[in-house]
Amino acid sequence: MVTALGGDLWLNRKSIYTEGTTAAFFHGAPNGSVVPYWDYRLLPDLERGEYTKKRDDVLLFTATEAYEITYKGKVALPKEQQEDIMRRRKHSVESVVDVWLKAPGVMVVSEGTSVVERRLADKVSILSADNDSVTLELDQDTHLPLRRTFRYRNDQFKDWDEDAEEYEDYHTIQGLPTAFSISRYHNGDMQNERFIKKVEYNTDMAPAIFDVNKPLLKK
User: Fold this and answer.
1) DSSP labels, 47-110
2) How many CA atoms lie within 13 Å of 6's alpha carbon, on the beta-carbon side?
3) Which of 43, 45, 47 shows the shortest CA–CA distance to 15?
4) Quick one: pLDDT at residue 204?
5) 65-73, long-range: CB within 8 Å, 24+ apart, which pairs?
6) Fewest C-beta atoms under 10 Å: which of 41, 104, 144, 217?
């Protein structure tokens, strides 16, 4: 999978800039909210997303915190949202490669084959020493990720929730195959769909972009 994604070029990415549109869903149905976005990522932990045509609604993530920034200033996102964001980061494809596979006691288990959006996939689970797990389904022909899935305990209802992301429409940008369509699911219901229009890797990003105490950047 790592070789298919670009090998050392993928492993040594420093930054990712994307722009496109994002759509929200409720109980698997679109809620009518489709907005443009501009996203800046300084790997591994910093991310800034700008939303609406005026780019005046900003979400900024550090290694441990998440904020919303508007003309009124900054406010920390609710605890539940912060936990969800950090949990998805912890179980991302990047985290599996950069952290999980290097940790002591990790196991990689073949789960056979599956089908993702009518594509045959090799299904692999990565199990950590503390009983956490991530499942990746990789295209049998290209070995690129088609789906990432993990489960976590719902403390309120005392059962398990499932988070999944599906990756489609790969294009090679600067030597790196990149999914231009990303869909996120919660317990089987689509929550968000993102369509990328532009990607740039390893561009210089000013430190002010990720400063939560700075006001909205002038365009």
Assistant:
1) EEEEETTTT-EEEEE-SS-EEEEETTEEEEPPHHHHHHHHHHHHTSHHHHHHTGGGSTT-EEEE
2) 17
3) 43
4) 94
5) 65/212, 67/212, 69/212, 69/215, 69/216, 70/216, 71/216, 73/215
6) 104
State the pTM of this model: 0.91
**Token code pair at residue 163:** 């988070």
Q: Is the pLDDT of residue 167 over 80?
A: yes
Q: What is the DSSP string of 100-148?
A: GGGSTT-EEEEEEEEEETTEEEEEEEEE-TTS-EEEEEEETTT--EEEE
For the chain, the distance separating the N- and C-terminal CA atoms, rounded to the nearest angstrom, is 38
pLDDT digits (tens, 9 = 90+) for 184-193: 999 999 999 9
Question: Token digits for 62?
Answer: 């550090």
Residue type, 172: T
- 51 — phi, psi (to 5°)? -130, 165
